[in-house]
Amino acid sequence: MRWTLTSLSFVLACASAPQTEQVTVAEPSRDQPVTPGAEVAEAEPEAAVVARRVAIGPAEGCAAVGSTLRCWGSIFLSPGDPRPESGARPLPFRFPSIAHLEVAEGTACVIDQAGEMSCFGAITDEARYEVIAQLEREGASPAELEALEQGPHRVRYGSGVVDVAIGIGGLCWVLESGEVGCRGVDSGMEVFAVPERFDDARRVALTDEHVCVLRDGGEVSCWGLDDAGVGASARTDAVHTHRELPGTDLVAGLGFTCVLGREGQVTCWGDGLLDVDLLGEDAYDDTDYPHYTWPNVQAVQIAAGELHACARTQSGRVVCMGENTIGQLGDGSTGRSPTPVEANQLEGATSIALGTNSSCAIVGERLRCVGDGSGGAFDGTKSPPRWAKVFTGARDLFLDRNGHRVCAIDEQDRVQCVGRNRDGGLLDAIRRRLPDGMPATSRGMASIDGHQCTLDAAGALDCGSRTNAPAARRNVAQVAGGSRTLCVRHRDGDVACHGTRYGSSPVVSGEGWQDLDAFAGSTEIAVDDLGSAICAVLRSGRVDCRGMDIAPLAPIRNATTLAIGTGALCVGTRDEQAICVRGGHLAAPVDDVVDVAYYDLHPCYLSRVGEVRCERRGRTTRLGEISGVKRLIGRRWLLCALTESGEVHCHGRGLQGELGLIPEGIAVEAVELDPF
């Protein structure tokens, strides 16, 4: 599984071998620093046919020709190089040979023909800092220290490594002796504690929730927290072994594991790639995940992303199955496929590599990719958020909780939306339409426990007829919800909330709808994304909250609107000020504010002239001017503005189609690159 890494403070790289008896890896050593700007010598061309390899992660990748390695993207993020250039770049160190290449989570690991492993990128930053501190104590020159802060920092390990897998929480490796070692971000990560001694392991695959190893006899042993990935009731202190499918390779993703058989068959278990209903009502229970084999596939290579997997045949045919929201299956569509489809855009592949939501193949001497390259997976280019005109002729708009769907109401009371649809992919999401199951008179939407609740023009809130859906409500003026709480404001100003069935809600306790008497007479309500706090503007102009400390806002008597973020609240006042509080601390008032919204966890303000500016870590970012804006509305991933002329402009990356167009960096049709 390939999830975006936000912080990796872990030091497999800078310490000795893992603290287990069965694995011994030599003490890592560091390379001498390279002077910034120094020319890096390329490896000599080889006379024979040169092997090409590629590996990609969510925001990075590496490509090898023989022993020459070039990388791009977040691997180059370092203290002295915070904004890496686009395109593949040579590294400031060389390898005698490259037998295995693994890339994920801002990190790359290389195993050479002698079995020596080196890693660099996010996983070795802690080692970099320790080396810098040691050199400072030894009186190193500023130039030497500066050199260490630039580019990726390489750490070497002992020999005898035959395989390695990188995940968001750590990494695991296999030695020639068949021993397995793992190291997690911290000692509390149970999945990275190897539960028994191995002496016959040959391959390893992992996510942050389960680990599987392929053994000499072809059987696969798994452990962890994910029943689906393990294929049985998951445990971290014992392994579950699949003995009935002799394999030669294995891969893992979110809720699934796949094995390449000795005859080329691809066999998987778990529910990450398919709809379990297709296997029959009795196919699965809570801990039983039977094997299924891909039909008409005789593969020589398999690869896995977060929720999709692909297989390559000897002839260069590629077939894929699973999630296909943004075209990562390579068949030109964007609809999920619970059975293998021909990835015709990757035809002729000599090797394949999958990222989180992307698929790449070496075709000839070039790299061909489909899916999500917006974070830098294809060539290091990261697509920035942007403004897009989404609707015209609108008189109002509303968003879903995460900002993955935008809906506009026109002058004839008709509703159209763009963004994530329940069953469709990106090509469906960018169409302006009335989503399946949404009333044509919708005025708002929210969800809880998987139930989609819609508010219509008559004030009726309907959460559907599925089991345990919240009861319908009448005379509703506004609906707002987070993951653990759903709230409504009635036309008379009374407020009621409904908690989640899965754990407790910080706002309400018990089951069913509960009235919040303290909020009687409300004119507006807001619920944070987690559903851990609700706030309301009262008719008196005061602001009241449950689940959040807003004592500094108690003196306010002229509030007109509010916007809520995680642990933060901003209030708009009649005298065109925004007053914000975070963690109980009051920020200085912001002047010239006619509306306020939270976007990407930060407050954004709309001025009289239509300028939108957002505060981020004490800095003001101006998002430009849009003429005649009368309303601003924001969510986690999206900010939208409604103008007096009825235009809806939205700012974001649009990866779910919420901008009404194919986002930059998304390749539904294959792109060709030359990273070699």
Walk me through what this model shows.
It is a single chain. With 676 residues, the protein is mainly β. The protein has a domain at 1-33 and 49-177. Helix content is 4%, strand content 41%. The protein contains 4 helices and 54 strands. The strands form 14 sheets. Strands 1-9-8-7-6 form a 5-stranded antiparallel β-sheet, with no helix packed on it. Strands 42, 43, 44, 45 and 46 form a 5-stranded antiparallel β-sheet that branches. Strands 2-3-4-5 form a 4-stranded antiparallel β-sheet, with no helix packed on it. The model is unreliable at 1-48 and 277-286 (pLDDT under 50).
Observed structural traits:
single chain, mainly beta, five-stranded antiparallel sheet, 4 helices, 54 strands, 41% strand, disordered N terminus
Helix-strand blueprint:
Elements: E1 29-30, E2 52-56, E3 60-65, E4 68-73, E5 89-90, E6 100-104, E7 107-111, E8 117-121, H1 125-137, H2 142-148, E9 154-156, E10 161-167, E11 170-175, E12 180-184, E13 201-206, E14 210-215, E15 220-224, H3 227-230, E16 240-242, E17 247-253, E18 256-261, E19 266-270, E20 292-293, E21 299-304, E22 308-313, E23 318-322, E24 337-342, E25 351-354, E26 358-363, E27 366-372, E28 386-391, E29 394-399, E30 405-410, E31 415-419, H4 426-429, E32 442-448, E33 451-456, E34 461-462, E35 476-481, E36 485-490, E37 495-499, E38 513-515, E39 522-527, E40 534-538, E41 543-546, E42 559-565, E43 568-573, E44 577-582, E45 585-586, E46 590-591, E47 595-599, E48 602-606, E49 611-616, E50 619-625, E51 629-634, E52 639-643, E53 648-652, E54 666-673
Antiparallel strand pairs: 1-9, 2-3, 3-4, 4-5, 6-7, 7-8, 8-9, 10-11, 11-12, 13-14, 14-15, 15-16, 17-18, 18-19, 19-20, 21-22, 22-23, 23-24, 25-26, 26-27, 27-54, 28-53, 29-30, 30-31, 32-33, 33-34, 35-36, 36-37, 37-38, 39-40, 40-41, 42-43, 43-44, 44-45, 44-46, 47-48, 48-49, 49-50, 51-52, 52-53
